[in-house]
């Protein structure tokens, strides 16, 4: 006989869940958020990135719940584009130093406002978007300035499932977590 699920087994403070209820789009940085922040290069100068599967599955679950994942990053690479394509991420701006206009263009395309947006960032270039979003988040190993303005700081470091923790929080806040979990129960 299968073991029963306790749903949800993950827990967040009620005030965080209330603050996150209106979120419909999540902006994510890449290096230091979706990856551990390390830059790996081949002898030919090609960038190699390591992504965590927990983060990827969380992004897919967000989409099932009607929450849009969007990437705004200062870098661009073939591995990044491939990974985002695999995850079905349709909104991404690559190679941008000024992230606010990039995020604003995505909000405009989606017909959403900053009050419906969250951002997970790890360093100074992410601060302006984090400051405008209704829900600012940072991985536990983010820069001190990002940690200082974050409404939510993950328990784990970037590239180790930090994005998944944010996804779980947003899924619970949206009321969709338990229903999605039930689709995996036998």
List keywords for this structure.
alpha/beta, single chain, 8 helices, 39% helix, 14% strand, globular, six-stranded parallel beta sheet, 186 residues, two-stranded antiparallel sheet
Question: What does this entry look like structurally?
Answer:
- By secondary structure, this protein is an alpha/beta fold.
- It is built from eight helices and eight strands; from the N terminus they run H-E-E-E-H-E-H-E-H-E-H-E-H-E-H-H.
- It has helices at residues 14-20, 53-64, 78-87, 99-110, 127-132, 144-149, 162-174, 177-182, and strands at residues 25-28, 40-41, 47-48, 68-72, 91-93, 117-120, 135-138, 152-153.
- The strands form two sheets. It has a six-stranded parallel beta sheet, with helices on both faces.
- Helix 1 (14-20) crosses helix 7 and helix 2 (53-64) packs parallel to helix 7 (162-174).
Question: Gist?
Answer:
By secondary structure, this protein is an alpha/beta fold.
